[in-house]
Each structure stands twice: as structure tokens, then as C-alpha cells.
Amino acid sequence: MLVSRTPTTLLLALFALACPRMHAQTVDGQGHPWWKHAVFYELYPRSFADSDNNGTGDLPGIASKLDYLKQLGVDAIWITPFYPSPQVDFGYDVSDFKNIDRMYGTMSDFDHLQTRANQQGIRIILDLVINHTSNQHAWFLDSSSSPTSAHRDWYIWRNGRSPGNPPNNWRSDFGGPAWTLDAASGKYYYHNFAPEQPDLNWRNPAVEAAMFDVTRFWYKRGVSGFRLDAVDYLFEDPDLHDNPILPGKNERGEPNMQDKYNSKLPEVHDLLRRLRGVADQSGAVLVGETYTDDATELKKYYGAHDDEIQLPMNFVFCTIDKLSAPEFRKQIAAAESTGEWPVYVIGNHDMPRSYVRYGDGQHNDQIAKLMAALYLTLRGTAVMYYGEELGMENNDPKRLEDVKDPAGKTGGWPENKGRDGERTPMQWNDSPNAGFTQGTPWLPVPPSYKTHNVATESADPNSILQFYRHLLALRHEDQALLEGDYVDLSPKNDAVLAYLRRSGDEAVLVLLNMSGSPQTLSVDVAAQGFSAAHMTTLLSTPKPPPRAGLRPFTLQPFAVYIARLSR
Ligand code: GLC
Asked: Could you give the CA distance from residue 87 to residue 54 in angstroms, rounded to a whole number?
């Protein structure tokens, strides 16, 4: 049972056989790697739970909320960076990869969290900020201390094109040139993000050895894998060709540019294979921050022999910010066409919350359930974002001087208010600051915390939170939802997504009305060999289904209907 065609699964199986205790941990009862059917939950440690009431979250805070996560139905948490950091980019500027920032706790707090998570059966994955470090990291301090320093070649140093001009036209993701002059040496260093985030030189084998060692350090402490930050930017054209300029301007008013020579270079894939080799030695999973709207490009991150990233995140749903059945259908078909195991995401710490992206201002709670039903019933692994299960909304800064996010400060206010709005504290109850802290929270909670919080929603059988709990429970136990293939039943319907997840003699039918008006449709499951007479409703919102049978079937505005069928 354990042997399969793919080297990945084969490796995992051999690993499991060689190490029976790990077998229990890395492979489920049917021989699937643990992460395949897992639901991941992204958690921003500054904002999740504040145990010492200083206004920012911490590791003991997370440990105190594991029961909540278990009850929700989460299998793994991805904790965004908690390493020592000057916090220029709120932890994505790491000054020591093998330690914990004091604001979040200590290494023993981490070990305690890992132990508690093991007891709960919740895996932990960390964020590996692999493209760059903080300019306060010892490696960069040494690198910038002298052109002959031991770490000089760990970063990318170049002469300007001419006095006062950077080496080429590449631009930082946070705006402005991607090069900063070091006055002492007269050379420029390269940074794809803020100047305080110099890019590592991955062409230097010493960088690779040091970063691979970082991953081993955490694997030994019990982590189950990493989310790989900004992988597209790991390599740059050594000849520093200028990037082509495209028509139009970006939101900062800069001319658009194609990142042809500093993004997605083929060398990225060679490196990912080697990084995966190290992960495989610990049975670990790699989740990728892999931005592309091209399914063929997404497929490449899995590796030609499934030997790169096991879970490259598919962000296309995040770019569809209106409810459009044809658009979602098209993107599901594209993901399915790769033949790979998809990874769906509808929100994270870099994009406005799904609640506001899809909400119409009137039916937002129902729409939040609709979106949950979509990405949690599709074939694949799902990555949730904390608070999505409550219907948390953005609380964007009201004034430019309040913006904390570096990308928001340079982002083109007021059109772009930065990412603070989607990073606000988790809403635990309706007491001040949503029960997150008794101090002053680092970001303010939105007024809707009074109704959208864990305590209030736990007491309401119709809340978004209860819907998530039911859905996640269903997803974990239903074989068709876990493994079944995807069959589109409504290829031409402009308002409703209708599909089957089919596994042997069982299937789950999913009907999602993406419109604000009632929709009546005839669903033909007989053509797939199933009978509507043997249909059991599993979840239905906003109301129970009006009548038995599927011909015709009326769905209320933004309704979700999920049922089990058999042959
Ligand atoms: C990734 C992170 C983002 C961060 C950037 C630089 O895109 O998700 O939050 O600002 O990398 O590290």
C-alpha cells in the first residue's frame, strides 16, 4: 500500500518503514502524507493572543488557544516569523534565524508550545524567510563592515552604473530602487523589499549551507515544515540586465515593470529540490508563497518528479475579488488541469480580508459561509487565515501617520492603505479590544468585534464560526470530500457553482449560489451514476432545502447546499 509511482511518496514510505514511530506521525491510515488532508491555519503571532497584556501577541498566548484551534478542526498552524527582528517588516526582517524575539517569549516558550501542540495533535510549521535577512543580522553587519569581510559575498554588492546611479533599473516591491548605496564602500547592495531587508546571495554555497542548517535546527525542535517566503526572488540575473518597462503605472505612480531578470529564474527550482531533500530527511512539508496566475507555472513548483514544494499555494482565488461563478469555475478547472494536489487560499496577512473582498455590505456573513464552503470542499489542502472563521473584517488606518506597514507607508495613500487592516488582533470576545489584551493593542480592532468574536459566535448556532466547525468536521470524516475527484455539474451556469466530489460509490454534491437572487436549477446527478433519491443533506444555509429531490432545486441568495449521494 505504501509504494507508489512517485519518488516523493516512495521516499516517505521508506522513511516510515525505517522509523515506525515517525510512520504514525507522517502518514495517515491510508498511507497519505499527513499534510495532504490537513487544514492549515495561518496565525500572525503579534495579533493572535497576548498573554502578558503588553499589546502584542506572544507564544504563551498561542499555547493557551490550542484548545480553540483543536475544536475548530485545524490540523496544523503556520506561525509567521517570531524570530528576533527589528520589526521593520513585522518579523519578515530576521536578525537571528535560530532564536525567538523577546517580544514573543523565549525558546522554552516555543518548546512548551511545541509540546502542547503535539499533545493536541496539531502540527506547527514556521515561516522561512529565505530570500533576505534584516540589515541587523550578524551576517549583514559583517558583510557591510568591509569589502573583504568573511560574509561579504553572502549578499549582493555591485558598483553603480555611474556615479549616483544604481547598478540597474530594478525596483523594490515596497517602492523605489531595489539598490541602496553603502557610503563607506561606495557599492550598492540589493534588496527586493525594504532597504533594511538585504537579499541573500544564493549563488554562494555558504548561504545555502547556513540556511539549510536553520531548517535542520527547527526540525530537531519538532516543527513539521516551513512556509517558504518570497521564493520567486531567490535568484537574480548575474549580468544585471535592466527589466523591461511596461505600459501604465503602478499604485505608487511608478512605471510598470516586468520582473524578468530578478524573479522566477530557473535556478529557483534547483534550489527548491535541494531544500526538499533536506525536508525529506525529517518527513517535513514545504508550503510555498508561490504567486502566479498561470497554472502551468504553478505546476513547476511541485517539481517535475514531485521533488520540490509539496504544497505551493494557489492564490488565484485571492485575485478574484468578486463573486463570479464562471471565474471561480475557470480557476478550479485550471488547478485541476495540472494533475497536482491543489492548495487553496482565500486570504492572508498580505491581502485585504476575504470578508470585505467578497462581501456586498448586506449579506456578508452568508457570503463568508459561501466562500468557506467553496475552498473547503474542493479537492486539495486548504490554508485558512486567523479570524476568517469569524468573519473578521479589515480595519484600515484612517490617517497616513497611523500606518505601520512599510509597504503601506510607501504604497500610494489613500488608494493603498497597506496591510495593517488585515493584521488586527484576533477577536476573542466582546470585551474591550476583543479580549485580545488588557493593554493597548498594537493595532485597533474593528467595531464589528462586538458581534464577530469567538465567544458570541460560539453561542450562536447560525454563526460563521459554527459553520466552519461543521464544515471542517465534515471535511475530516468524509472520504469523498477528502479524496474524491472533482466533477463540474454546471459548466454554463453564470450564478451557481455545482459540483460533485466523487469517490467510489459515494459522492458529495456541492451547490453554491454566487448571486444575490434565488436560483432554480436542475442538477443531473444520474448522468454520473448517482441517485437523488439517496440524498442526505449535510449542510444547508441560509435555510434548510425547500424540498427533497434535485429537479428543480431552488437556492436562496448566496446559499450553500451540501449533500451526500450514493449510487
Ligand atoms: C512575503 C510576506 C510579506 C513580506 C515579504 C517580505 O511576501 O508574506 O508579508 O512583507 O515577504 O518578506
From this structure: 16
